[in-house]
Amino acid sequence: MKMELIGRAGAAFILASTVAAHAEEPLLADMFQSHAVLQRDRPIEVWGNAKPGSRIVASLAGKTVTARADADGRWRADFPALAAGGPYALAARADDGRAERVTDVLIGDVWLCSGQSNMVLPVRRTLNVDTEISNATDSDIRMMTIPTRTSLKPLRRFLAPVRWTPASPDTVADFSAACYYFARELKKRIDVPMGLVVAAWGGSRIETWMSDKSLQAAGFDDERLGLARLASTDPAAAARRWGSLWEQWWKKQAPAGDEPWRADTNDEDWRIVPKVERWDHWGEPDFSPYTGLAWYRTHVTLTEDQARKDAKLVLGAVDEIDQTWVNGVAVGGGSGDMRVYDLPRGVLHAGDNEVVVNITNTWGPGGLVGPSAVQAIRFADGSSAPLKAPWRIKKAPSSYGYPPRPPWEPLGGLGVAYNAMIAPIAPYGFRGALWYQGESNTEDAAHYKTYLTELMADWRSLFGADLPFLVVQLPGFGPVPTDAPQESGWAALREAQRAAAVEDAHAGLAVTIDIGDRYDIHPPNKQEVGRRLARVARHIVYGEPVYPSGPVPLSAKLTKKNIIVDFGDIDKGLVALGAEKPIGFELCSAGGVCRYAEARLNGSHVALARGKGEKPARVRYCWADDPICTLYDSSGLPAGPFDIEVR
């Protein structure tokens, strides 16, 4: 999933995208298109834009309402609640003569589906795809996919056209698979039209989906938040300040004097880049593959006349995140397909000029992609000085970790996806939200529960205080556990997801630990993800007497010889797959030392044998990136990973 980014004033801002309105805003807001699904059994709020002070008459399903546009041209009106049905026409007419009409509008249940790449993953990349596509004949399932864009401020409108699309063999291949399979499964029991609004972005962190207010409540760094606000008014100042913060981070990791962005840095330990393309394609063992930090540098010679001109640095594409300097001055950083950075006056000089780029790559192929033909210093008069000198590269030590990400960066920035992709949806009516995200936050799992809790509260302020959240717990991925327990960011994030859902009366958890793929972060069995989400919805949203996910831990108690773990939500008893006893249980001391524990099933309990005099503080289960989990109930649903105190 590529992003079209245009850098301005030293930062990879999407300033071309942050305009809040088109030449003339539509009478009916973007959400109201032909084939739309509106939420049943509650007042239906419709809104749009008209000449300030004008009167608007809107009609739907034989009902008529009126509204008046405010000083900003914004109008809103509520239709009375309607039962599931349709198709209807929705029409609006202003007293200045403007009129709009959309058709084939259904009334049903509407769901907001968000997250990162596993929510984005399309039907065409799932199991049994040919049959799934040919059987997608229920046109009462409809999807609107919000284009991936960002903004530094909350927007009233989307930055690209949107449309509602009924499911069919011609359209469903590109539908979000998890969202579509959820609706298809749910519709077997809740036979009403299903509307699906997908606002998701592959690789995105949770913080890009949170508003400024919720980021503050979650305790995000005030300096980064301040920079995000500054960037909306003075991007050049924000870029300079961010460059200084980035350099401070580097100096804390590196030996004194190791400042690769400085123009007087020696080239001796920098190798020549074979070709401007992703480094995995070079065929060199130490870059195939490589995730981490790498420094690039090159030189360009300018005349005195060129050095005096207004100019931009054109790098082309970078995979994944860059921070860039010219002659030792930070000029920009971010992510996306195109890096074009304005160069402040005085940065360039006659003679040799140095360009230095640090690239952070956290997943898959990485590097300076270019192409080399576009890389240049481009001047305001249309001329340019190509970056013809070879690029050189040097790795950064892996022990340094990853630098902080710019607060305006699309996937890891602060609120920028929320501003462009969530804010314009409100106050559309939803039956609930599906959240499938977390892979990009596994290195910061300690804070994820707070983030998720604040995000749910944040979105409820837009879509209703009791908006249900159906959270997909991360599946297994990566190395399986060995003969000793180990720490795992993936396990810690699953626990944060579980804890956030347990403490929220309107949230439920779909456990997927057993349907991952240790070799593929995008497991293709999204049909089962959809089935499990639908089961959670039946319990949380519709109040059906069905357990939402599988066995859940209630308590861990110390007895004379054992630790007794009590489970609830059990369908016809606990079972162990493949053996008489379940595996994957750990007993952990107060100091954090864990060991595997022998487990025995006993009704709704699991008894863990403890050593003589041993007083464990916690019980963990299936604590690894890709654990082998064998505890289920008779419904075939697994007990999910957990970490609970012994009492």
Describe the structure.
By secondary structure, the chain is α+β, with helices and mostly antiparallel strands. The protein folds into 3 domains: about 105-210 and about 425-540, Rossmann fold, CATH 3.40.50; about 225-330 and about 350-400, Sandwich (Jelly Rolls); about 550-645. The strands form 6 sheets. Strands 1, 3, 4, 6, 7, 8, 9, 10, 20, 21 and 22 form an 11-stranded mixed β-sheet that branches. The longest helix is centred in the middle third of the chain and has 19 residues, at about 235-255. The two termini are about 45 Å apart.
Describe this structure in a few short sentences.
With 647 residues, this protein is an alpha+beta fold.
Task: Output the keywords.
11 helices; alpha+beta; Rossmann fold; single chain; 17% helix; 3 domains; disordered N terminus; 647 residues; 11-stranded mixed sheet; 9-stranded antiparallel sheet; Jelly Rolls
Q: Kindly report how far apart the N and C termini lie.
A: 47 Å
The stretches of 5 or more residues where confidence is low (pLDDT under 50) are 1-23
What global shape is seen? Answer: globular
Mean pLDDT score: 93
Q: How many strands? A: 32
Helix content class: 10-25%
Give me the secondary-structure category: alpha+beta
In percent terms, what proportion of residues is strand?
25-35%
Q: Helix count, per DSSP?
A: 11
What does the largest sheet look like? 11 strands, mixed
- The rounded Rg comes to 27 Å
How are the secondary structure elements laid out?
Elements: E1 37-39, E2 44-49, E3 55-60, E4 63-68, E5 74-79, E6 85-94, E7 99-115, H1 117-120, H2 129-134, E8 141-145, E9 165-166, H3 177-186, E10 194-200, H4 212-217, H5 222-231, H6 235-253, E11 271-272, E12 292-302, H7 304-308, E13 311-326, E14 329-343, E15 351-361, E16 367-370, E17 376-379, E18 384-386, E19 392-395, H8 416-422, E20 432-436, H9 448-463, E21 469-472, H10 489-502, E22 507-510, H11 526-540, E23 552-558, E24 562-568, E25 574-576, E26 585-588, E27 594-596, E28 599-602, E29 605-609, E30 618-621, E31 631-633, E32 642-645
Helix pairs in contact: 3-11, 5-6, 9-10
